[in-house]
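Recall that a protein's primary structure is simply its ordered list of amino acids. Everything else, from secondary elements to tertiary packing, is in principle encoded there. The following example makes that idea concrete.
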Amino acid sequence: MQNLSDQEKKVLEIMKESEQQLTPEEITAEINKRYGQVWPIQVTITFMARLKKMRYA
């Protein structure tokens, strides 16, 4: 398995913590709130696609 970037780890962590499947919008909102970052939704979608390609999601 490949190493994950810090950003990919943040997305994966939020996805795993949830008891239900989250939308990219919900993940982005949580990242922005939790880490004080301002990500566009497209960034989250890109990281989700990378995680899926690496078989993490």
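The radius of gyration is 10 Å. The CA atoms of residues 31 and 37 lie 7 Å apart.
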